[in-house]
Amino acid sequence: MGESPTSELITLSVVIPVYNEAEDLPALGDALQEVLGALPETWEVILVDDGSQDESFTCLQMLHQRDARFRVVRFRRNFGQTAAFAAGFAYARGAIVATLDADLQNDPRDIPMLLETLREGDYDLVSGWRVHREEPWTRRFPSRIANWLISRVTGVHLHDYGCSLKVYRSEVVKNLHLYGDLHRFIPALASWMGVRLAEVPVRHHPRQHGRSKYNLSRATRVVLDLLTVTFLLGYSVRPMHVFGRAGLYAVAIGFLMALYLAVLKIFWGASLSNRPLLFLAILLMIVGMQLISVGLLGELVVRTYFETQNKPIYVVRETLG
Q1: Does pTM surpass 0.90?
Q2: pLDDT average per 10 residues of sequence, the chain (321 residues)
Q3: Order of strands across the sheet with 43-49?
Q4: Which CATH superfamily is domain 12-236 in?
């Protein structure tokens, strides 16, 4: 059994979400020990069992018994990949945090290259780019559209937002507050901190066991999450700026329409009872006041959020190590 480096300063933490990957875990453990064992850094691997229904936790127990540097966090149920990453980041002790998937499609042998890029370029985040993806076009094509859309909307240009193989400086992930399915947007969310990031090509292998957890139905969720990220990046601390601005425009346009109609009535005696423009003016002013009210409520919600955001989005059943 390996020694647990609890008395040493951990240099590298590797965070891996696990969901029904029992067939891949033994080979993943061997690959990680080979790659990480050749590094000069002290390291740990944090495997987050996201409520697996197969023998994944038994395999994780065996990895921990073989080498205590393999630490395990087990959820009570399936909370999703974002929650698994959030838990791994919370438990990570390393100055640098690496992430990858457990299905062996990401290659652990690329971790040293990402570490070298992070340090030599003085970056805060280095993201993998699966140039040659070993997947059917039904996944590659929607992913390409999503990557283009996310890059355009957020202003953080990456070829491959969906690649889990990344390395971060710990201060980046420790200051992230993830929920929903926002793990794929971590580079964009981190850009709010002013991080320096790079993207490098990495290997990608076909899936050997099990079925992919991704499908075309996730496209709608990506679009909705993108709207959330856009709001968080631009207006999360100032919701009044987006709702209040729209409300003021609506009120102003409605008022100008009503003023125009009032002039017609006063000076030319025009009848307003059958003028649709009158109803539109009233509607715009009402909607505008409602939007301003939503902005004020948003300001109150934001204040509450920043005071209570320490609540975790997962429940841990047990830990090993």
Answers
A1: no
A2: 56 96 94 95 96 94 96 94 93 96 93 95 93 77 84 87 93 84 85 88 81 59 74 70 85 94 88 85 94 83 66 68 74
A3: 197-202, 125-130, 166-169, 96-99, 12-18, 43-49, 70-75, 316-320
A4: Spore Coat Polysaccharide Biosynthesis Protein SpsA; Chain A (3.90.550.10)
